[in-house]
Design brief:
Elements lengths: L6 E4 L14 E3 L23 E6 L6 H17 L4 E6 L4 H13 L4 E4 L8 H9 L4 E4 L9 E5 L1 H19 L6 E6 L5 H14 L5 E6 L5 H15 L4 E6 L2 H13 L17 H8 L6 E3 L2 H17 L2 E3 L6 E4 L5 E7 L2 E3 L5 H5 L6 H4 L8 H6 L1
Subcellular location: Cell envelope
GO molecular function: carbohydrate binding
InterPro entries: Bact_Solute-Bind_Prot2, Peripla_BP_I, SBP_2_dom
Length: 380
Amino acid sequence: MTRRFATHQKFTGGLAAATASLALLVSGCSALTTSGAEGEQTEQTVEEGFHVGLLLPELQTARYEAFDRPFFEEALGELCPNCELSYANADQDVDEQQTQAQAMLTDGVDVLVLGAVDSQAAAGTVNEARSQGVPVVAYDRLAEGGADMYVSFDNHRVGQVQAEALLEALEQDGTTGEGSIVMINGSPTDPNAADFKAGAHEIFDGQVEIGQEFDTPDWSPDEANSQMEGAITSLGVDEIVGVYSANDGMASGIISALRSAGVSTEDLPPVTGQDAELHGIQRIIAGEQYMTVYKAIRPEAEIAAAMAVSLATGEDLDAGEYTLTDVEDANGESVPAILLEPISVTEENIGDTVISDGIYSIEDICTADYEDTDFCQEAL
């Protein structure tokens, strides 16, 4: 799979400009002290350009190839037209990501942007980069080992948003206090999944009965399907009033299991999701999935690009409208971070979120299989 391995891109001044609303700018001339590069770091300049490595974790979730990578490339090209970008996706393989990272370090990257497959295993990559004086931006997932900067969403809040939406759906259905819900959480190797889970429990505990709960290796829709089948066998399909699914991909497997158990579209319990994948949005308008969490990936990618330029050049990072805070990784290392706010998306606000932000068009959503839905009939 060629997408797994490093590709190289040299930006030029002729690259189409990134969106004019780029929210994070690198400014000033005073040096920014990185959090722990042990080797001697040579500051680069935007005028001469430098080498950036982008490592993304997996292909199960559509967002990384469809949005994160192109948005990052676009933002870096705007901020540093003469920079070179190397890219690789590990396809959920820890060893592969370590190999990719080592190849980039050997190739002489000046800064790494790392979306870790496994945050604990990524500590080796972070430490190796530090030993060579290469700063690391932890992207979307907080890698251990003392990354220099971190950008993600408020992942605890993501879980709260999902749980709040599910409780609201139960209230609308009149099933609050009846039956139980099933929780199908994300991958146990992804630190974000633990935050989603904790945030959801903060809302659920004491408010609803959790009949079955699972953690899902590799965010696998197939595994989520099997877990849901087990929950149906254990609880009985009629006793399940809602399903907490940590993301859209797993929601597809969950809904498939419910359908296999004989549940019609009209009788499906509300199912949550995350990532605002196109198929997730289409399931929402079809009445199969209740909600998803929209995380505005463009600003996340733009911030990561600005952090990379800041760390490579030693220039200050101007947080603009965002708040620069400190978070601790699992080893107690303090990392400067920007955490963005997630948004709950149901059928009612699709137009005000993923469509208005240009993520999808009406035509993208309202394909032949969905053109008869109420949403598409009103939109087309």
